[in-house]
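[Solved] Which block belongs to which protein?

Original post:
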Amino acid sequence: MANLQKSISSPQELLRDKAWARWTALVLLASAMFFAYIFVDVLSPLQEYLQSTKGWDPSAYGRFAGSETFLNVFVFFLIFAGIILDKMGVRFTAILAGAVMVAGGFINYYALTDSFMESGLKNFMDDFVNLPDTWWNITPFYDGMPASAKLSAIGFMIFGCGCEMSGITVSRGIVKWFEGKEMALAMGIEMAVARLGVAVVFLGSPAIATFRDNISVSRPIALSVLLLLIGLIGFIVYSFMDKKLENEMGSNGEVKDDPFKISDLKYIFSSKVFWIVALLCVLYYSAIFPFQKYANNMLQCNLGISAEAAGRVFFVFPLGAAAITPLLGNFLDRKGKGATMLIWGAILMIICHLTFAFVLPATRSAVIAYSAIVLLGISFSLVPASLWPSVPKLVDNRLLGSAYAVIFWIQNIGLYAFPMIIGAVLAATNPGVENAMDYNYTVPMLVFASLGGLALILGIILKALDAKKHYGLELPNIPSEKSLEAEVESAEG
C-alpha cells in the first residue's frame, strides 16, 4: 500500500522530499524575512527620540510609518510583483526583492545621518512636495514635514516594495517546498522567526540609539541595513537549491501546470471567498502592524516609563507570537480548524485593544499591560498561522503568486492608511500636547478594536461559507491515513 501511494504521488524522490533540504530552504527564506522585519520596525521604539532630535511630530511619524506601502498600493507594485513571481519564478523574484530592500534601507539610513542634514539634498527636500496636510493628501508628504522625514519616507516606500515582494515570494516558496507536508508548520515557523525580528528591535533599537548616552537614531538603521544585505545573500544561496529542485521536477515526469496568463487573474477577482479572506486579512493586519508603530509610545504614556522599559514590556508580544505560531501551524496541519482559529484570533484582538483603551490608563498596571500583550501575541499567532496556509485551498497553484500579491496589496492599503489615520487621530485628540510622553491613546485604541470587530464578522461569514461550499478550511493540511487509502482505492478503481 505504501509503495502504491508513493508511485502515485511521485515517480522518484525530489529534493523537497528530503527533510534536511526543505528545512534548509525554510531557514534561508525565514532568515531573510527576519532581517526585513527588523528594518520594518527599527524606528518604532524611537518615536520619542525622533521628535526630540529630528522634529518628527505625530503627523510626520505617521506619514513616514505609512509610506512603506505607498508604492505597493497606489502604483500597484504588489500586483506587478505577483505577476513577476508567477512569470519569472521564486528565484528571480527573491533576489530582486532582496536588492530593492537593501537600496531602500540605505536611503532611509542616509536621511537620518548628520551628513544629510548638512547637504544640499536637505534644502531640496524642504521644497519637495509641500502639499497641505489635509484628508485628500494621500501622499506621505506635506508642507512643514521635516526634510529627514520626507527622504526617510522615500527610502521606506522603496524598501516596502522589496519587503512585500519578499513576503509573497517566501509564501510561494514555502508552498513549493512543503505542499502536502508540514506546510502550515513551515509557514508558522517562518512567521515566528519574523516576529523575533520585531522582538529584537524593541529591545535592541533603543539601546543602540542611546549607546553611551549619545542619542543617534541612524545608528540602529545602519545595523539593520547590514542585516538586509545578509538576507540578500541568503536569497542568492536559496536560488541554487530552488534551481536544483526545478531541474528534478522537470526531469522526473511531473505534470506541469498550464502557463500563467494575465487574463487568468479573473478567476481570483471573481471569487467571493477569496475576497472575504483578503478583507479579513487587511482588517486584522491593520490592527496589528500599525499598532506596533505606536505601541512603545502608548506604553510609555500609560505606564510613565522610558522607551527602553516600554520596549522590554512589548518584547513579550513578538516573543510569545513566535513561540506559539509553530505550535498552531502544526495543529492546523494535523487537525485543521483554520476558520475557527481566525474567529478566536479576532475575539482576542478586540479584548486586547479595549484593555489598552480603558483598563490600562485607569490602572497603570504593568501586570495588565503584560497580560494584554500576551493575549495579543496569541491572537497574532492564531490568524496568520491559519490564514496563509488556507490560500492554496482556494486558488489554483499557478495563480498562487498573484493571489498572495492581491491579498498583500489589499493588506497594504490598510497598512498605508492606518498609521496616518492613527497619527492624525492622536494629534486631533491631544491638542497642544508637545511632550511625546503625555499623549492619550484611548481613541486610537478604539479604532484598532473596531477593526477587530469587523474581522470577527468576516471570520464568522467565512466559516459559514466553508461549511456550505466545502473549501476545506477546517480540514488538516496533511491527509490522514484514511483519506490516503481512499485516494489509492480511487486510483485503483
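(Second protein starts here: sequence line, then its C-alpha cells.)
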Amino acid sequence: MAPRKPLLLLFDVDGTLTKARQEITPDMTGFLSSLREHACVGVVGGSDLPKICQQLAGGDEKAVHSMCEYVFAENGLVAFKGGELIHKADLVGKLGDEFLQRFINFTLGYLSKVQLPLKRGNFIEFRNGMINISPIGRSCSQAERDAFVVYDTEHGVRSALVAALNSEFRDANLSVCIGKVEDGREKHRGSGQISVDVFPRGWDKTYSLQFVEKEGFEAIHFFGDKTSPGGNDHAIYEDPRTVGHSVTDPSDARRQVEELLKLR
C-alpha cells in the first residue's frame, strides 16, 4: 500500500457527507473510514458535537473520532485532534457577561416594540457560539413560521433588526446575519426563516484552520456544499489556506475525492 499523502481532507457535514439534516449512509461511512489510508481526514460543522456525531455515527462519538483525526464542532470552537479535546471557546469567554447582558437587554427592548400579527415564546436562544434572535419566537408552529416568512418579506422585520443591532453595537466586531433561502434551502447556518444569528467576526468555519495550518500538510482540501457568497462554507472555501471544492451532495463529494486521490 502506498504511504498516506501529506494532505488534509476537511469536510463540511450537512449536505456534503450527509444529505441535508439526515444521517450518513453506510456506504458513505465505509468510504470516509477508508480515506484515512490515503490522507488525513477532518470534519468541520456549524452544529454542536452531539448533532455531528448523530449525523455521522448515530450518536457514537468514538466512531466519529475513529473515522476523522480532526473533528471541529461549532466551526472549531470545540476542536478535537486524535479524539482529544484541544480547544474550547464560548461567547461568555469572548464577550463577557457585562456586554452580553447589555446586548440581550437592548434586543429584548427592541423586540418589545415590534408589532407583528402574532408572537410566541423563545425570542432569544443563547448558544455556545452564537445568539439566535427570533422576532416571532422560536416556539411558533410551522404554519406560523410560514406566515412570518411572508410578512417578513413584505415588511423587512429582520432587516430592520439587523440594522438596529449593527448601529447599536457597531464597535463590538460582531457579525449579524440573516439567512438566505433559495429553493427552500437555508444559506446561512442556524438563521432559518424566522431569526437572525449574531456571533463574533471570524467565528465562521475559518476558525478551525488555526489548528491545522501549521501541521505540515502540503495542502488542506476543503469540501462543502454552501460555497457561494452568503453560504456558511463560503469563507473557508475562499480562504487562501485551503483548496476549495464545491460539491452538490455526498455522491459528488465522493467523486471529487476519488479524482483528487486518483482512486478511480
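Accepted answer:
You had them paired correctly. Confirming on the second one: The chain has two domains: 7-77+204-260, 92-200.
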